[in-house]
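User: Here's a chain of 403 residues. Predict its fold as tokens.
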Amino acid sequence: MIAALVAIGAGAGLAYATTRPRVDPGREIEARPCPRQYVRLPPTPVSKDSLQLEEVDTAGAVDPAALAFAPDGSADGLLGDRSGRVARIVDGQPTDEVVLDFRGDTQEVGDGGLLGLAYDPAGDWVYVYRATEARDDVVTAYPLDADGRPDESAEREILFVDHPSSEQHHGGGFVFGPDGNLWIGLGDGGGLGDPFENGQRTDTLLGKVIRITPTPEGDEPYTIPSDNPFVDREGFSPEIWLIGLRNPFRISFDAATGDLWVGDVGQACWEELNLLRAADGWLPGANLGWDAREGSYPYEGDAVPGGSLEPAHTHPHRDGWCALAAGFVARDGVLPGLDGFLLHTDYCKGRIMAFRPGSVDDPPRLVDTGLDLERPVAIVPGPDGVPWVLSIEGPVYRIVPAG
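Assistant: Prediction complete.
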């Protein structure tokens, strides 16, 4: 796959590409046939009619793609359209007050658009992640006034990542972790089979989960946490935390355990849920394997690379999955019977599922909520922990107990 691989640094035994491979940008790897036989975790249905989707009035949102609530518990927040329109949420109700507007400089084809919104832990700044009209990946920050409105005139560019010519794979995972740092999932740049080999390269942020400390009022827009796994290592971008991703569209941290969940959109066969436990330090420098592997199986080459992380769970495309949107772990009893389960859905499948990893005495479980919607792209916790589900077709819903 790559001429020279070396094992180095955090995660001993893992292989990383430290030099830019000679790649024809038009080279695309045709997917190998999906395995005919594989282990499937059968879903358990929730009690019949125990949950329902409660539609929220979006006050003019057209294609909702990103949502964030202020960290002060006020139920105020922001709702962003894929097109770049960002409007206020006041006391849990979306309004038609547009406070940020990127329409005209946002890629609205392929996997682009406005991808993420995040408040810093102090609630002083809001951050926006989007693919520009030029198809580059950009993170910008805006100070908030006393009423929680971002000041567009005081924009600070935090991160700019040059993206290949493809419309695809801009990532979208975007969240402040319990460590106070900003975690961002960046796609591999697109094309079938990662033609630029970005997933395994270490001199690019594409195909990675990165971890930075934003400093919007500083001389530099961000700093590198000193415990990032590749700090001061030649040939490695120090922002990198995880390598070997295809399109990490949504990531989240478990509010109770601090565990990191990374949903990675697959190529031809599998959608991946990856778990990095807080007790393991979120596995700094872990290699999730793309494009040598997809799911639990080889993609390029004849074997899964040694040391690469096994997904916690995969959904096969032959079951109707195509673009996973990992949500968050339900807690505090907001959804009966689903405490500790990761809510997730899929752009094509449209079904909301819940997964809980196993332990020595308790096998993993997959639960079918029985809830369906068209073109879901995000499941986000509200200020009370109740899930909000965004459909790019227009509706926004809350998942609530029936009755």
